[in-house]
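Each record in this resource describes a single protein on a pair of labelled lines. With that in mind, the following record should read easily:

===
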Amino acid sequence: MRTVDFSPFFRSAIGFDRLFDLAEAAQRVGEESYPPYNIERLDENRFQISVALAGFTPDEVALMVEQNVLTLEGRKADKEGKTFLHRGISNRNFKRQFTLADHVEIKGARFENGLLVIDLQREIPETMKPRRIEINGAASSNVTQIESRAA
C-alpha cells in the first residue's frame, strides 16, 4: 500500500492542520471494515448514515458527538453457556468514527430492520450566510439577507 507523507506541507500551511489530519485518516479507511455502513445524501443539507448492527440492541450501542467527530461504539455482552456449531454473525465489539463537517448536527438515531439509522442536517447560522449590503451616498445600515445555497 502506498502512503503519502504530508509533513512538507505542515511548514508552509497555516491553519490547515485539520485538513492534513483528515487526508491521513482517509488513507486508513481500508484498515477497518466492521460494521459495514452506508452514507446517503437525502438532499442538499440532509444526510443519513445507516450502520448494519445485526444482533445488537440499543442498550449495547453508544452514539456520541464531540468536536465534529461522531463516535459509534458497540459493546456486545458475552452470553455464557452458548455452544455454536457455526458462528457467521459477528458480535464483536467495535468503535467507528465519522468526521462531520462544520455546522452538521445529529437530528436523531433509530433502529430499523437491523440497521442503526442516524439522521444528520447541515444548519448554517444566519450570521455566516451571505448577505447584501446596500451602498448609499450617506452612511446607512441597511442590510438584507439574500437567498443562497450552502457550500
About this structure: The longest strand covers residues 104-112. The chain has two domains: 1-31, 35-79+86-125. The mean pLDDT is 80. The first helix runs from residue 7 to 10.
